[in-house]
Write a structure and sequence with these properties.
- By secondary structure, this protein is mostly beta strands.
- 3% of the residues lie in helices and 44% in strands.
- It is elongated and about 50 Å long.
């Protein structure tokens, strides 16, 4: 574990892991420890993360937006686009995306259940429509999902 992160004293539940994973045995359970690179405050309004300008560790604070994105009411299971300009989510039986720089919300496809999704580098969204099921793929601009 990095020296600058080993003694931060923050709980893992408040940590934002941005580093490599380490696997260690903990009693009878396998626990995945992710070195803490940052922490969120208790209200999720601020992030403090470790940066290394010129190899000297320092903390960089950052205020987080606390306003809801219009059109994302009932949104669950969010995930970011590879470029960070969009956030995908499930709501009201739809797999949708919201532009973070405007109020644009677009539907990619219908999805009755929300069982996770990820945005692929080629612009497709891979998602699990229900559990158990095969993963489906849909173009982020919308369309019919395929295997």
């Amino acid at each position: 574990m990095d020296k600058d992160l080993a003694h931060q004293g923050q709980s893992d539940s408040a940590a934002v892991g941005l580093g490599r994973e380490e696997r260690r045995a903990h009693t009878s359970l396998d626990v995945i420890l992710v070195p803490m690179r940052g922490v969120l405050d208790h209200y999720f309004h601020r992030l403090a993360r470790t940066v290394r300008p010129h190899e000297h560790p320092a903390l960089l604070p950052r205020r987080l937006d606390v306003q809801a994105i219009p059109g994302t009411e009932a949104a669950i299971s969010p995930f970011f686009s590879p470029d960070g300009r969009w956030v995908g989510f499930f709501a009201n039986g739809q797999l949708s995306k919201a532009c973070l720089s405007s109020d644009t919300v677009l539907t990619a496809t219908a999805s009755k259940d929300a069982n996770g999704a990820a945005w692929a580098p080629d612009g497709a969204i891979v998602f699990a429509p229900r559990y158990p099921s095969s993963l489906l793929r849909v173009n982020a601009s919308g369309g019919r999902p395929s295997l």
